[in-house]
Automatic annotation (TrEMBL), chain A:
One of its GO terms (cellular component) is cytoplasm. Keywords: Chaperone, Cytoplasm, Nickel insertion. Signal peptide: none annotated. It is found in: Cytoplasm. The keyword Zinc-finger does not apply. It comes from Actinacidiphila cocklensis. One of its GO terms (molecular function) is nickel cation binding. The keyword Ion transport does not apply. Belongs to the UreF family. Required for maturation of urease via the functional incorporation of the urease nickel metallocenter. HAMAP family: UreF. This is Urease accessory protein UreF.
From TrEMBL, chain B:
UreD, UreF and UreG form a complex that acts as a GTP-hydrolysis-dependent molecular chaperone, activating the urease apoprotein by helping to assemble the nickel containing metallocenter of UreC. The UreE protein probably delivers the nickel. The lineage of its organism: Bacteria, Bacillati, Actinomycetota, Actinomycetes, Kitasatosporales. It is found in: Cytoplasm. InterPro entries: UreD. Its main location: cytoplasm. This is Urease accessory protein UreD. GO terms for molecular function: nickel cation binding.
Length: 239, 244
């Protein structure tokens, strides 16, 4: 058991860090994430997700692929690697044009919220360099830094979001019991933690070896589903 | 027995506008044959698997260098079947492709099949100069007919004119990260086909993308990527239409 003070110390470098992490990963933080299903809408439509078990399997796969990559990009940004180099690394790791577009749109929305919440020169510089939006994990990493968080915290926020996004959306898409969706996330918690740690370790390696040291795990059905979903005339979620 | 083999192909443009092969060196499991080219000005090489490889513990490597202005097609006589060894050791297969300015490489091997119990780690690194042309096909098949999949990991990195076009890692089969066979990643499918085209071709008017497939431009340069978990015949015919 750790005390609250120790937990706060572990979560970040300064006073208020733990609460800053909670705020940043809160679904109510106005960064636009609620409008996206993380690929769940496309997966539900073509029968890949039918129930809570399918949702759990989907979230698990997303966490260990694009979730890991997003967490590593976020952690590497927080660790101080050049955000523009990491933005290029995110492009190279996102073959789907639809997913790149979504990631930049989410990045732009997070940037707006972050500059109001934790104003700082690093956020301003990235916003100026990528006026149409940097990739969301990169903006998340700069935001975490501005909020006084560590690379591992940024990785946790990204890894958690990679599973929580589809889980929350599935409640609407499948009329799933919200308790069941929460249980899916609770059961994934140990894997979310190990993914965040692996991402932060990779970010540490990237400090010396460059962005090629970051994971590039890919999920073919997420890419294919996103391309199809972007062409739908009517949809519940933006992605 | 552990086999380490590095095969090398070096293609250059000759004085008559054709392509010569000053380097054509098979090694161990990877035998190379110069075969009849079907396109003007190009050379063609067929990789002939001289033995069942890669077997656990093997380290295979093939280096291809296509110098400025040369045109080369590399294909293979048969699928590459990754087989287990009794000690459970992984096999490694590394492909290094370098294509110079104004040069063209068509890399069109038969599929890699991960037989049950096998463990293969593949890396493919492609370096393209500005103005280089590439057609790269990669087909992964998990398990032979009616067989459980082996463990297969790949990392495909493509640089074009100093920028990274694509950096993609895949991991399937026992030992891969949880969820690999679930609805976000492979969803129970047993094949994955990809075709990378640099620069993008004019799309055939009658192009009909098979289900479970996408065709998307990459960010950092003129490139198009076809990805498909459709059954092989659907992928190969679409790939052939795009790579014409």
């Amino acid at each position: 058991m750790t005390t609250t003070a120790e937990a706060a110390q572990a979560a970040g470098s300064g006073a208020g860090a733990l609460s800053a992490l909670l705020l940043l990963s809160d679904g109510r933080f106005p960064a636009g994430g609620h409008a996206h299903s993380g690929g769940a809408e496309a997966a539900v439509a073509d029968g890949r997700i039918r129930d809570a078990a399918g949702l759990a399997d989907f979230c698990r796969g997303r966490l260990h692929t694009t979730g890991l990559v997003a967490a590593a990009l976020a952690a590497a940004t927080t660790a101080g690697l050049d955000p523009l180099v990491l933005d290029d690394a995110a492009d190279a790791r996102t073959p789907s044009l639809a997913l790149r577009t979504v990631s930049r749109r989410l990045g732009r929305q997070l940037m707006r919220a972050a500059r109001a919440t934790w104003p700082g020169a690093d956020l301003d510089a990235l916003a100026a360099a990528r006026p149409r939006g940097a990739h969301q994990p990169v903006v998340l990493g700069v935001t975490a830094r501005a909020a006084g968080l560590r690379p591992l915290d940024a990785a946790h926020a990204a890894a958690y979001e990679s599973a929580a996004g589809p889980a929350t959306a599935a409640v609407r898409l499948l009329s799933l019991d919200p308790f069941h969706a929460a249980a899916v996330l609770a059961r994934l918690a140990p894997q979310i933690d190990t993914t965040a740690r692996a991402a932060a370790e990779a970010a540490g390696r990237a400090l010396t070896h460059g962005p090629t040291a970051l994971p590039a795990a890919s999920a073919p059905l997420l890419d294919i589903g996103a391309e199809h979903h972007a062409a739908w005339p009517v949809r519940l979620f933006a992605s | 027995m552990t086999v380490t083999s590095t095969a090398r192909i070096g293609a250059v443009r000759d004085r008559s506008g054709g392509t010569a092969l000053p380097v054509l060196a098979g090694a161990g499991a990877l035998a190379l044959r110069r075969t009849r080219a079907s396109r003007g000005g190009e050379a063609r090489v067929t990789v002939v698997g001289a033995m069942s490889a890669p077997l656990g513990g093997d380290r295979l490597r093939i280096d291809v260098d296509v110098a400025a202005g040369a045109r080369l097609t590399v294909d293979s006589a048969a699928a590459t079947v990754s087989l287990p060894d009794h000690e459970g050791r992984p096999a490694f297969y590394d492909v290094r492709l370098t294509v110079g300015e104004g040069a063209e490489l068509r890399w069109l091997p038969e599929p890699v099949i991960a037989a049950g119990g096998s463990d293969l780690r593949m890396t493919t690194r492609v370096r393209l100069a500005a103005g280089a042309r590439l057609v790269l096909r990669e087909e992964l098949v998990l398990g032979r007919h009616g067989e459980a999949p082996g463990h297969l990991t790949t990392r495909l990195t493509v640089d074009h004119d100093g920028r990274t076009l694509l950096d993609q890692a895949l991991a399937f089969g026992p030992g891969a990260a949880p969820g690999w066979d679930g609805p976000a990643v492979l969803g129970g499918h047993r094949t994955l086909g990809q075709l990378l085209l640099v620069p993008p071709p004019d799309l055939p008017a009658d192009l009909d993308l098979p289900p479970l497939s996408s065709l998307t431009p990459l960010a950092a340069g003129p490139a198009l990527l076809l990805t498909s978990t459709a059954p092989r015949p659907a992928f190969t015919s679409t790939a052939a239409a795009l790579a014409r």
